[in-house]
Amino acid sequence: MKITSVTVKKIEKENSRLKGIASVLLDDCFAVHDIRIIGGDKGLFIAMPSRQTSTGGYRDIAHPINSEVRQMFEKEILEAYETAE
Questions:
Q1: Residues 16-31: pLDDT tens digits?
Q2: pTM for the full model?
Q3: Parallel, antiparallel, or unpaired: how do β-strands 18-26 and 3-10 relate?
């Protein structure tokens, strides 16, 4: 599996931890939208798309199964964030 495209929309709101929203295209045939780019205490990180459950919690809709794939997503998305206008 390869990430073939990353699109990032920066969000410029003061005092907001949300820094951007990314969409990723995998192997030119599967898209994952609404990946959030969050500013944390230790720098930027990504949060996968999620929805609210009936109990008020949140559950990821799509997510990497292992740390290697998560690191691949994070690297590609954060690199695209740094070059986005």
A1: 999 999 999 999 999 9
A2: 0.90
A3: antiparallel
